[in-house]
Amino acid sequence: MQSEPNALDVPDPDFPSGTWQGYYEQGGKRHPQEMKLEFAGGHVRGEGHDGIGPFTVRGSFDSSSLRVSWTKSYRWHRVRYYGLRVPDGIRGTWRLWFEEDGFHLWPGGSAEGATERAAAEASTPASTARPRRERTGAPSG
Q1: Where are the beta strands (DSSP E) in the chain?
Q2: 58 vs 47: CA distance, rounded Å
Q3: How far apart are CA 107 and CA 125, in angstroms?
Q4: What is the dihedral sign for C-alpha 6, 7, 11, 17?
Q5: H-helix segments, the chain
Q6: Closest to 27 (Cα-Cα) out of 121, 119, 124
Q7: pLDDT at res. 12
Q8: N- to C-terminal Cα distance for the chain?
Q9: CB of 74 within 8 A of CB of 141?
Q10: Are 126 and 116 in contact (CB under 8 A)?
Q11: Which of 27, 48, 61, 126 has the fewest beta carbons closer than 10 A?
């Protein structure tokens, strides 16, 4: 007799596990980042790296609302991320103390990835459409 698949074992097409790449915006520039994320049972976890260093990711996602949030933890500090799954990836806002700005991630190998990666590596000025609160200090990521 064959059993029904466990909901935790069924991949979510909106939140595929694997490599995600993209950028976070800070100081009017885009800073590349890459991470390996596992989405399962409403939880997201993983690890990655950017110009600041290596980090881990722990958080949650909701398939019905397409919302996702996680904490990106470096050795010395943590950054909160709040996003929404959109057709070209996950877009949202990161927050650290009194500073916040935008981010964009997409699954590795996806068609839009090549264009977005090139733009991030060129440090194209970030959008100024959303208000930012800034503080001085260490880069946040």
Answers
A1: 18-26, 29-40, 43-50, 54-62, 67-73, 78-86, 89-96, 99-107
A2: 9
A3: 22
A4: negative
A5: 111-121
A6: 124
A7: 85
A8: 50
A9: yes
A10: no
A11: 27
**pTM of the predicted structure, to 2 decimals:** 0.75
CA distance 47 to 55: 6
In this prediction, the residues of the chain whose per-residue pLDDT falls under 70 are: 1-10, 109-141
- Are the beta carbons of 103 and 81 closer than 8 angstroms? yes
Residue 11's pLDDT is what? 74
Burial 61-76 (b: 16+ CB within 10 A, else e): beeeeeebebebebee
Count of C-beta atoms within a 10 Å radius of residue 125:
11
Alpha-carbon distance 35 to 141, whole Å?
13
